[in-house]
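HUMAN: Forgive my ignorance: could you write out one protein's sequence and backbone structure tokens?

ASSISTANT:
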Amino acid sequence: VQLVESGGDLVQPGGSLRLSCAASGFTFSNYYMTWVRQAPGKGPEWVATIHTDTGRTYGTSSLKGRFTISKDNAKNTLYLQMNALEPSDTAVYYCAAAGHYYGGSDLKEYDYWGQGTQVTVSS
């Protein structure tokens, strides 16, 4: 099983990034796919979740309107579109998969998780 995140980069405040998470080794359908982030010196923070079959999304209200989670089942890939980025969005972003809805930030509670991709927002 592999979850491989990509798309992290250094971006200026106000910019946009799209993160990707390529999944392999398990059946992508009927999973809750999640983005979790961890800023330097802080604990992990749950960002958003999407159910791969229904497309239902769950997101933290503080990020709604700027961050959008989506998926492409044909490509077994999860995405996170991030707009109007702020320095406080600087973090390592992880994707994670679970067969049930969890909605938390502890990666160990998920069935699988990736190694993360670094997003740095700075001028």
